[in-house]
Amino acid sequence: MIHRKKNLEVHDAKRRWLNSHDIGYQKSMDNRHIQMIAIGGAIGTGLFMGTGGRLQIAGPALVLIYIICSIFSFFILRALGELILNRPSSGSFVSYAREFLGEKASYVAGWMYFTNWAMTGIVDITAVALYMKYWKIFDGIPQWIFALAALVLVSVMNIVGVRWFAEMEFWCSLIKVLAIIVFLIIGLVVLISGQPVDGNITGLHLIKNQGGFFPHGLLPPLVLIQGVIFAFASIELVGTTACECKDPKTILPKAINSIIWRIGIFYIGSILLLILLLPWNAYHEDQSPFVTFLSKLGIPYVCSIMNFVVLSAAISSINSGLYSTGRILRSMSMGGSAPKFMSKMSAQKVPYAGIISTIGIYAIGVLLNYTLPSKAFEIVLNYASLGIISSWSFIMICQLRLRKAIKEGKVEDVNFKLPGAPFTSWLTLFFLFFVLILMAFDYPNGTYTIASIPLIALILVLGWFKVRKRVHEISKQYLEKTDN
Q1: Taxonomically, which superkingdom (predicted)?
Q2: Element (DSSP H or E) covering residue 201
Q3: Do 184 and 269 form a contact (C-beta atoms < 8 A)?
Q4: Per DSSP, what are the bridge partners of residue 197?
Q5: Are 97 and 256 in contact (CB under 8 A)?
Q6: What 3-state DSSP class applies to 444?
Q7: What is the rounded CA–CA span in Å between residue 302 and residue 307?
Q8: For residue 29, what are the β-bridge partners?
Q9: Distance between CA 455 and CA 379 in Å, rounded?
Q10: 3-state percent breakdown (helix, strand, coil) of the chain, nearest 5
């Protein structure tokens, strides 16, 4: 009994110490900001640009793949919601890993997540430049200028204050949402009216007449899971906002629940409409499927409009990357697993040191734009995928450990839970492992990425030996305070 009481006291002291890492942040985000950040994180350029190629590979079965991935995204978000309601933290799952799994786990979780955003940002910086060059009026302007301008704009918005980040993210997300809503309305009107599109009568017969639901068999859609699941990358961003919104325990559950049904409408509804409006093989990898359909209706400037939408999506991704890495790096620094200077805050209550460090990585992306071919960027994105899988896995493991801590009486229970846990928790972890296996079969990029995991592990081990002394010193300090 005495030993149990001591364990509870130690855990409570650790939580107080972890909560001290979040002191200094401004609670500037309103409900509208959190709602849009949440849904914006779930809607990326993959939906607008990548769906055409995926329809070519999987046919109508792509709808089923999105349904499966949406279900597991729901599980991940609700697991994160449990952790947030128990203890809101700007360090998100990195802070939860420190609480429930220890310093080594927190170190791995943090640096893998940083790797994800560093790699993603490099690609998005280049994407912004390419999208700007789409308009012929900019032909005479060097591509690197657009990349640099985007980086400067987003950097300033992040440095001057969290409210500016939130506003920028709100409007970028709103552009994406409005684009999908407009497509859904036009598509439904065309479908209900029975108006032919490019000589094709719309409806379910388009599936039957083009080889059925699985025109290429079961294997191609299965392999696509590893690509589709990464379309949902950034859904975990909502956890990082916990300490900077006005009422996290009220706002965040609503935001998390709203993501689920919006994903259902925006992702699944959009893809279902696409295959009911045109034959699935009418869509192509090199063109947005929304552009393919809307151009058939003769809607003017549709390509320019969609280019503006994906441009805003890329800027949104860069914006999110700077925001999240700044907070995550500060949390890691407070625990000792990142350089000490990254814990610094500005007068505007912004963790500027971590943000500037990420800006440095993104600036490298501007330079790489000249020297690396497009295939190299695909490899970079695959490494980002490893970061996402590890981050989501840590969320699920921490949620399982939270449930264990609740049973042991170490922490209070929460009323916002992952349905079906622990079964759904373990099922999600199995699913994420399955995605890793599928990546290995995606030759050559996915295969090489999986083969490099031992090298990544070696780098992490070497890094841990470099920081472990400081980590242990900081841990020792809070334990001494507990004893006193």
Answers
A1: Bacteria
A2: none
A3: yes
A4: 200
A5: no
A6: coil
A7: 8
A8: 245
A9: 15
A10: 80, 0, 20
Whether omega for the bond prior to residue 300 falls within 30 degrees of 0, making it cis, is no
Strand partners for 59: none
Query: What domains are defined for the chain?
Result: 27-483 (1.20.1740.10)
Write down the pTM of the prediction.
0.91
Are 414 and 85 in contact, with CB atoms under 8 Å apart? yes
Helices 248-263 and 62-86: crossing angle in degrees, nearest 10, is 170
* Token pair listed for 396: 């699920």
pLDDT tens, residue by residue, 331-365? 888 888 898 889 888 888 889 998 999 998 888 77
Rounded CA separation 65/48 (Å): 17
- What are 381-415's pLDDT values in tens digits? 677 788 889 999 999 999 999 999 998 888 888 88
Written as six digits, the tokens of 244 are 């900077």
Structure tokens at 50: 């990548």
CA distance 295 to 309: 16
- Of 86, 76, 112, 123, which is closest to residue 236 (Cα–Cα)? 76
Strand partners, 200: 197
Tell whether omega for the bond before 444 is within 30 degrees of 0, i.e. cis: yes
Phi, psi angle pair for 29, to nearest 5°: -90, 130
Token pair listed for 146: 């657009």
379 burial (CB, 10 Å; 0-12 / 13-18 / 19+) is middle
